[in-house]
């Protein structure tokens, strides 16, 4: 079952199963999300990026969990391990508060710092996989799961899933055995989508999958590495410039405010208190990375996946692919899959993520400028893209098709256009002969061997002439009838 069907099921489900009080009107069509993180260096960097994109989401919780890499200890029998404390989240929100007035001048919808602070809760942090305690974080997740609001609830696992598991277990303990339990469990399984980064504790396999077998998991087990510590081994050489020190210094680290001053990079001389085993910050380390090279945002794909403002429509169906990777169906939902890397002409498990790295870095660089630009005209803003014929089209084999793309730019920048076929996302096994020459329109003939139900994904790409150069896309899906 595809994610679009999940969304539709959640929207039309009429059974009143809220146990958290009267349903409140849901005022936003933004993705409803809960961030669950464990305080690693890359979580910190992902959280900084997340704050610059906070206007794109209906944020319902920011929850601190443990993982196999970080836990707080219990003050008695369990000692802390690489524990970075819980204060840094509010410190980052305080620094976001300094940027907030400027960010609002460039885009609407940014949450107030007070709102973000109210959403921050400490979950199950005393040990790896600990889910016996009911915590403030688990109660928040439980309440948001049970809230009678439309649309999916995306729970992002940047660390372990133990606090989410505790929330689900609390629901199970309260309602299993009642007459309403089967319908409640079914509705929750339709509503909740977990985006899992690696398996950072045992609770997914030991509790969630056995007890909630129909809960959908978008499982990123390998693609995230291309945006994490080992990126030099994964990102094509032609794209690595967007992660190297000169780009990082110019676009993020210098002159972009106090929040980005906290952004960690390789060998930057900025230790992470408590995480003494992570020595990548030490300038004297004999590492292949230069000072201020990108270090890691391995958790960012979980929210990049939901940024449908870019026109890639990735959240409609994980098989489509986008800034948060591309996935193939499996027994639990979806697992990350491969795209063909044009540099090697071979299937590459990380290329569904790395193909976008320059675009998403430029997009973040523009938002970094927003935070320090009090005037709209002093920063770049994304162009717009649309296709006259629509984005979901039915076509017949042998038929000639012409598509008319359109672009506009709020800053008046000159625009360039590109059409391309995302063959890895297609179910049709072949390439179109596209008539393109840097124009906004394309023509092609639907292949004669295309059969009923085949899909072909075309991406219309608009790039502005601003600094940094920004893109918007429009994905058009052709379905053969």
From TrEMBL:
It comes from the Bacteria. InterPro entries: Ig-like_fold, Ribo_hydro-like, Sde182_C, Sde182_NH-like. Residues 32-327 form the Cellulose-binding Sde182 nucleoside hydrolase-like domain. Residues 1-25 form the signal peptide. One of its GO terms (molecular function) is hydrolase activity, hydrolyzing N-glycosyl compounds. One of its GO terms (biological process) is carbohydrate metabolic process. It holds the Pfam family Sde0182_C. The keyword Cell wall biogenesis/degradation does not apply. Residues 400-480 form the Cellulose-binding Sde182 C-terminal domain. Keywords: Signal. This is DUF1593 domain-containing protein.
């Amino acid at each position: 079952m595809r994610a679009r069907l999940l969304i539709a099921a959640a929207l039309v489900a009429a059974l009143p199963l809220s146990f958290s009080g009267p349903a409140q009107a849901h005022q936003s069509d933004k993705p409803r999300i809960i961030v669950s993180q464990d305080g690693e260096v890359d979580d910190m960097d992902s959280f900084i990026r997340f704050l610059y994109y906070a206007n794109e989401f209906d944020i319902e919780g920011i929850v601190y969990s443990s993982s196999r890499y970080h836990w707080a200890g219990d003050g008695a029998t369990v000692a802390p391990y690489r524990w970075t404390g819980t204060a840094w989240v509010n410190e980052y929100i305080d620094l976001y508060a300094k940027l907030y007035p400027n960010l609002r001048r460039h885009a609407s919808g940014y949450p107030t710092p007070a709102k973000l602070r109210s959403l921050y809760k400490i979950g199950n942090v005393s040990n790896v996989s600990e889910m016996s305690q009911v915590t403030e974080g688990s109660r928040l997740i439980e309440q948001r799961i049970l809230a009678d609001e439309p649309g999916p609830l995306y729970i992002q696992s940047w660390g372990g899933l133990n606090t989410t598991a505790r929330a689900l277990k609390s629901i199970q303990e309260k309602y299993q055995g009642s007459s309403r339990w089967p319908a409640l469990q079914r509705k929750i399984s339709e509503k909740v989508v977990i985006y899992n980064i690696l398996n950072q504790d045992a609770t997914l396999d030991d509790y969630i999958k056995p007890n909630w077998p129909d809960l959908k998991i978008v499982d990123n087990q390998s693609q995230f590495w291309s945006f994490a510590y080992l990126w030099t081994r994964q990102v094509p050489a032609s794209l690595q410039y967007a992660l190297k020190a000169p780009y990082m210094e110019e676009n993020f680290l210098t002159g972009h405010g106090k929040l980005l001053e906290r952004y960690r990079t390789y060998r930057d001389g900025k230790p992470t208190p408590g995480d003494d085993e992570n020595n990548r910050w030490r300038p004297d380390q004999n590492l292949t990375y230069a000072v201020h090279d990108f270090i890691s945002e391995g958790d960012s794909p979980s929210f990049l996946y939901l940024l449908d403002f870019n026109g890639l429509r990735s959240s409609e169906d994980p098989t489509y692919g986008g800034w948060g990777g591309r996935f193939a169906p499996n027994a639990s939902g979806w697992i990350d899959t491969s795209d063909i890397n044009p540099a090697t002409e071979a299937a590459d498990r990380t290329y569904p993520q790395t193909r976008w790295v320059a675009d998403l870095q430029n997009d973040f660089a523009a938002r970094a400028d927003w935070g320090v630009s009090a005037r709209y005209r002093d920063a770049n803003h994304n162009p717009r893209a649309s296709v006259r014929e629509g984005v979901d089209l039915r076509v017949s084999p042998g038929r000639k098709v012409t598509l008319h793309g359109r672009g506009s730019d709020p800053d008046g920048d000159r625009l360039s256009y590109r059409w391309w076929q995302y063959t890895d996302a297609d179910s049709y096994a072949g390439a179109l002969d596209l008539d393109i020459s840097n124009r906004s329109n394309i023509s092609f003939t639907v292949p004669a061997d295309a059969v009923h139900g085949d899909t072909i994904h075309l991406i219309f790409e608009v790039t502005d002439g601003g600094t940094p150069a920004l893109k918007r896309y429009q994905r058009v899906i052709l379905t053969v009838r």
